[in-house]
User: Fold these one by one.
Assistant:
Number 1:
Amino acid sequence: MSNSNTNNLNCPVIAGISITVDKEGRYNLNALHKASALGDHKRPSKWLASQPTKELIAELENSQSPSTGLGQNLIKVIKGGISSGTFAHELLAVSYAGWISPKFQLMVNQVFLDYKKGELKNTLEPSKSYLPEYRQAKAIELSVRALDKMFSNLPHLSEQSKQAIYADTINPIAGKNVIPLPKLENKTFSAGEVGEMLGVSSNKIGRIANKLNLKTDEYGIFVLDKSRSSDKQVESFRYNEKAIDVIRNHLINKEIA
């Protein structure tokens, strides 16, 4: 049984995914996201939450004429049922596709044009011209899922470290720098490097840091590093210059005492 809110017959199909259209002609953004084969970072909710998107929607709302039949309802969310999803005006749907990637936008735009002209090609597989990108997108999606799962077990890992790991993993697959490397505002040092500066062992640096509660954003960052006792990757804290000053003063005060 079909949902009366959507037209599930002869929908445009992209990469084997039917892009359902509601009765006002709005396109299902969730279906477009699925067709792109990318991860959660490209979900419609991420796009809708951005300031440029909010400005785009506001501009389109202001330019709408009564003849469009949509008025202010450029976005509609259907919850539950077989036709659930976020449905958007065609111009917004194409813009969302461009936010996913320029190549995907061109593909979506052509499919939408064919759909409106009645030249719909209802293929069940990704088009040959898009197949390499489709496979690439699937590889990126699987990599992002694996990294998200890994990060869920590393709650202290800094956002800078996460971004660097995402970039090192995703960029080689994409063949370009789709994720920029983070800019490090302050230089940080490992416990071993701090120990060499202050003439003590790295273990003592760690003990002092724990005692003084220095392993916070104020005094450095958590990064992913190789364990000294195995090949396992573990969270490791790197100290900034402020932390080094605190540790140095602590050691001096201990000597005086």
Number 2:
Amino acid sequence: MDTRYLLLAATLFAAQASASSDQAWHEHDTRLLTACKAVSGLKDVRPAGQPVLFDDRLGLTALLLEGRYPQKHMKGQRGQELCLYERKSRKAHIAEADALIGERKP
């Protein structure tokens, strides 16, 4: 797990929501990354950007992931997934997102 992403995300989130402690954001980011990695179908999965925090009325955090497809026929091709994390239930949901940013080179 790359702690640089977590530290940067915690810093950004703390600036956005001064009512929440740095520790609370760090815990959120840790839960987010753990849950998203657990449901990902990619190998060597890692964040491809910073978390996007939706309004509390929706209660979601989005995180773009990148890694490699594990299927033999995919020959280790790079792929992307979008993870939507429900903050209240702490559940993560994954969707393929290769077309989200455009074509990527292997």
Number 3:
Amino acid sequence: MSFKPLSAAVPALVAATMAVSMWGTMSQQAMAQSAPANLTYDARRGVFSFAGGIEHALPAVVKVTTLGAERSSTPEGPKALQGGSGVIIDAANGIVVTNHHVIEGGRNFTIDLIDGRLFDAELVGADKATDIAVLKVTASGLSQVQRVDSDTLRSGDLAFAVGYPLGLDQTLTMGVVSGLNRSGMGDSIEDYIQTDAAVNSGNSGGPLLDSRGRLIGINTSILSGGFGGGNDGIAFAVPTRIMDFVVTQLLDHGEVKRGQVGLTVGSLTAARARELGLNIVRGAVVHDVIPGSSAEQAGLRRGDVVTRLENRPVANGGSVVASVGIVTPGASLPLTYLRDGREMTTSVRVQEPLTGQALLGASQAMARGLTVQRAKEGVQIAVVEAGTHAATAELKAGDIITRIDGRAVGDLSGFVSALQNGSVAELSVLRGGETLEVQLGG
């Protein structure tokens, strides 16, 4: 097994350590002077350590326990449903950030501090699409973390995950930022930081810190190849760029108010790039443009490939969804795209969400969080928007809707007509050769 160095400073550290073990004559003062500038040397103990940069942030990392309702309580109190971690970002107001899936289904919540204190917490709001939730605790003597703009991160930066994994007390693990702008893990707003810092069950909602103890993301999920769901060195965190927007919305409104631009997009694959005569595999292909939308007004068409949005590179379809999903309606986003191999620029205005409306496009239709396309029998689901009635009904991309309220769905216009009135609809869905009956809220 071979190991790659975390940074160019590691060989210098190894050489310095060997020098001490071989000769033992180097003074601590000389050692400190010769230490690489980007490593911390504890002269008193004679060791290299990141404790000085990290320790001040640890009191802000909390354990979150989600409890059931009082009526389902045990004699000892409400029953614990699940747990995770969290981080205090505003000590004066007791604001704690965690994951949506940590608090999901709970009625009561508690916060454990590293000093042993335990407090009840109030749920301010939660956003399933980004897996972010905000709790509020009333307590004195709280600590908070300093936040840093996640757009300043680079692959190879050191990263520290802190939380309460696998029933243990507060635990710190170290790794690097393995990648940025990761998506494709589900029907969510995804623009994750990838890290190889060990993250396990119980770390959810805890902070990902840089080497100075500053918050860069909220640990939210892992990619595991084992049956036990343990750490395989691939973990994902919601970046502070997204977290800050969601937290502000939840504190101001109790919910997240998002806009839309009227685009349905997919990731640019190597096969699709060859079809379009392109020699790139980074970008988002426009599958459809909703009539009358700001995307149509901006001149975008089916087959365009978005390469930059809001002056940020677009890695895939998830990049577009994430960028639009954290912008309030009314803002204009500069956009760069390719058409017939030529680079073009435009600007798209973020519109108010079209909740409850059914929209018909040239090759796709949208309604109640579903984007569908033509299929041999009925219409096939292409996209399920997180946090919508469709997601709650557990509909999935690839499902084929054959009937709505007992009537056959023959085409896109039939789908739109059936869901236009906003009432609860009964869907017959074909999945894996089986027909399912699904209730879709209005």
Number 4:
Amino acid sequence: MNPTHLEAVTQRQNLLRSRHTMPHHNAAKTHCRQGHEYTPQNTYSRRTPKGYARRECKTCRRERLSSKAAQ
């Protein structure tokens, strides 16, 4: 192994670099399942109780919550 090829990076950077990890695939997504673009204005970010980061489309969230309220 050649140590001059190594680079010190955080665990997050390492996960995002690997094409074989879910964080890499999720970070590469630009639109939600319904086709709405993930923009800063249309993206709700939160942490789950276990500490995982989640992105949610605000448009879809608004539609889902309004349909629940109508029931």
